[in-house]
Design goal:
The complex is a heterodimer of chains A (359) and B (306).
Chain A (H helix, E strand, L loop, with lengths): L1 E5 L5 H25 L4 H10 L5 H27 L6 H18 L8 H27 L3 H21 L34 H18 L1 H11 L1 H6 L4 H28 L10 H11 L4 H25 L4 H17 L1 H4 E5 L2 H5 L3
Antiparallel strand pairs in A: 1-2
Chain B lengths: L1 H29 L7 H19 L2 H25 L4 H19 L25 H5 L4 H19 L1 H11 L1 H7 L3 H27 L11 H11 L4 H24 L5 H5 L1 H14 L2 H7 L13
Classes of the chains: A mainly alpha (359), B mainly alpha (306).
Chain lengths: 359, 306
């Protein structure tokens, strides 16, 4: 019999090895899944995982998909380290797109270099405001932030829908539920001509680097880590729990709001009801896959972007349903969480005495 | 009068899936495990029940498939959290993401199809009574099963030895383990039960409420069920009240939409979610009451060192 034995200290090697192992296991399980669906697993995996990396256009598309994931996941990583579970990033993303987008629509005929920064600030503030609700309700009334932030996601998506159907609808359009298109100085500059890769990716990388410095070197990062790993110690040393809750929700809400605005002002270019496509949820997986470490999250965001682009390619070339992407993402997180046990435990063969003691 | 009965019947139909999911999760949480994957287990149950009913033509087989699929989904969570000591919050979220993906994949061929809704029981004479008949004695079997489950779970938790052990495991897994109770086994079984209940709740959506298969058709009901457990302060009777409260809000906003009260439909659709937040705040405000009723080991991983 095998049994798990607690390591004296967490294994550093395993901490870095498990995400890679999880990706490999997911690819293996994916191959089995494709075979069960009657597709050639080698061909399917090639379309899914290799084709997104094979030409420049696909690589720039990876950047488009990875940017919102990285931005949101970096924000979430602060909270997840401190035990503050904001899982309503999708809602904060939506509200950020809405508030930032409204600024663009107010100045729909006024171009200016100041417009994009103003939209970004509005988007960040919108995301923060939406995240402030669970922060306030948790710190003041002890209400569970998981459930509150999630419920607000549904509210935010309905809010976007009602506004785009009504007051924000393009007055010169054909009555479709969509806003005016943002003009040139209200859309993100393109990095590489002829592609959709925009400046949002650069911002996401800069945000990740800043977050890494804050987490590793700044007292805020220290407090966040202590709160998550030793809540009692945090309390005794006088960190205010409510301050950390607020801080984590403001960081994650603000970055999710920024991601939402970047999506609206980037690849979409207007407000539409279908703007939220689940980045806020996928970012949760990205945060864990990246070990809640901002630099790791950049890598994880790119890996996750592959599953999106690969999923689209598989849909077109192999006729596989788009839902395959969701299955892949779920499996990836399962494998990661499962083999993460090796970070804190090691596998030992059971000694006879332990069997006798009926462990 | 007819309208009142229609609304009340609607509330029962809206409340039943919530009640199934909530009562299952209540047992899980009483054993000290927080499974946030209710939404994922419900949606897998919804497609499993629907697909099986279409393929076999039998609602009974559909319900069995739904419960089995829900339990199987829960088993993934159980293996990860109980044997591999993974973080329960993260694993629950993974279960929801995975469940939504798997169900969408499985349901590809079934969207747009329809099946006959689960038959309503008709008891001669009693079902024909005015008011009482349509209100209490002419529902489908699952409505009665959900009520029986509440009574059964309340009895199990408070009046049986096995229920006492389950609560002991939830209050202090170390003490329970020291006495010799099989902590992991108890939690595993509780999780399977919770998964089966969530699966039935999902099947109620796809076989009675609509009866259709639509991607993401649970629309947050699994999360509302989690809120109902907190609302109920982990007491089965109150979970019943909670499920019917949320069912009531859902149905009333639907009728308000039907009457065209001059408010955009989207605002009315927000009501169940906003109600959940408000109710959570009202219940959680009293910190002492929540901590008095919440299982002390809720969400904490258990590792038997000896």
């Amino acid at each position: 019999m095998l049994r798990l034995e607690l390591r004296k200290e967490p294994s550093r090697a395993m901490r870095y090895a498990t995400p890679v192992l999880a990706v490999l296991l997911t690819i293996l399980a994916g191959g089995i899944m494709f075979a069960l669906m009657g597709k050639d697993p080698v061909e399917a995996l090639h379309v899914f995982f290799i084709s997104p990396l094979s030409d420049l256009f696909s690589i720039t598309e990876l950047m488009v998909k990875a940017s919102p994931l990285i931005l949101i996941a970096v924000g979430l990583s602060f909270g997840f380290r401190a035990g503050v579970w904001n899982i309503g990033a999708e809602g904060q993303f939506t509200v950020g797109a809405l508030t930032g987008g409204v600024v663009a629509l107010i100045f729909y005929n006024v171009p200016g270099i100041w417009l994009l920064p103003m939209m970004t600030i509005a988007g960040v503030l919108g995301g923060m405001a939406w995240a402030a609700i669970p922060a306030f309700l948790r710190t003041r009334y002890n209400a569970n932030e998981i459930l509150v932030s999630l419920m607000l996601t549904y509210v935010a998506i309905l809010l976007l829908s009602v506004l785009v159907h009504g007051p924000l609808r393009d007055p010169e359009g054909l009555n479709f539920p969509e806003s005016r298109m943002f003009h040139d100085s209200a859309t993100l500059p393109i990095l590489i001509a002829g592609t959709r890769a925009n400046i949002g990716f650069v911002v996401a990388i800069l945000v990740a680097i800043t977050a890494w410095i804050v987490m590793a070197r700044h007292v805020i990062g220290f407090q966040v880590r202590v709160m998550g790993e030793a809540p009692l110690a945090a309390r005794f040393s006088g960190f205010l729990e409510s301050r950390i809750v607020w801080l984590c929700l403001m960081i994650s809400g603000g970055l999710a709001g920024m991601a939402g605005l970047f999506e609206a002002a980037g690849s979409v270019g207007q407000l539409v009801p279908m703007l939220p496509v689940g980045y806020g949820f996928t970012a949760i997986i990205v945060a864990f896959l990246g070990r809640l470490n901002p630099i790791g999250i950049v890598a994880a965001g790119l890996v996750m972007a592959v599953t999106y682009i690969g999923g689209e390619a598989a849909q077109i070339e192999l006729g596989l349903p788009s839902a395959v992407t969701g299955v892949f993402q779920g499996m990836l997180l399962f494998f990661l969480l499962g083999i993460d046990v090796l970070v804190h435990y090691q596998i030992k063969s059971r000694r006879p005495s332990a069997v006798a003691a009926k462990s | 009068m007819d309208l009142t009965i229609l609304i009340l019947q609607g509330i029962i139909v809206a409340a039943t899936p919530l009640l199934f999911a909530a009562i299952g999760e209540l047992v899980v949480e009483k054993s000290g495990v927080l499974n946030l994957g209710v939404e994922g287990m419900m949606i897998v149950g919804a497609i499993a029940g629907f697909a099986m009913t279409i393929e076999s033509g039998s609602h009974l087989l559909g319900l069995v498939a739904a419960a089995t699929a829900g339990a199987a989904t829960a088993a993934i969570f159980a293996v990860l959290t109980q044997f591999l000591m993974s973080n329960q919050v993260a694993t629950g979220l993974a279960l929801t993401i995975f469940g939504l993906g798997v169900s969408a994949l499985w349901g590809q061929g079934y969207s747009g199809q329809s099946t006959a809704p689960l038959a309503r029981l008709h008891i001669p004479v009693i079902s024909d009574l005015p008011i009482v008949g349509p209100l209490l004695f002419s529902h489908d079997i699952l409505v009665y099963l959900s009520v029986a489950l509440v009574v059964g779970v309340a009895w199990f938790l408070n009046r049986t030895r096995a229920g006492l052990i389950l609560r002991a495991v939830g209050e202090s897994h170390s003490s329970a383990h020291a006495i010799g109770y099989p902590v992991v086994k108890v939690r595993f079984l509780a999780l399977l039960f919770g998964g089966a209940c969530a699966g039935l709740g999902g099947a109620y959506l796809s076989l009675v409420q609509t009866p259709l298969w639509v991607e993401d058709m649970t629309a947050g009901r699994g999360w509302i069920a989690l809120a109902i457990v907190v609302f109920a302060t982990w007491k089965p009777g109150r979970a019943f009240a909670g499920a019917y409260l949320f069912g009531g809000v859902t149905v009333l906003q639907l009728h308000a939409q039907g009457f065209g009260v001059g408010i955009d439909a989207q605002y009315l659709s927000m009501l169940p979610y906003v109600t959940t937040v408000v109710v959570l705040v009202i219940i959680s405000r009293d910190k002492a009451r929540v901590s008095l009723n919440a299982p002390a080991c809720l969400g904490k991983p258990f590792y038997a060192s000896s």
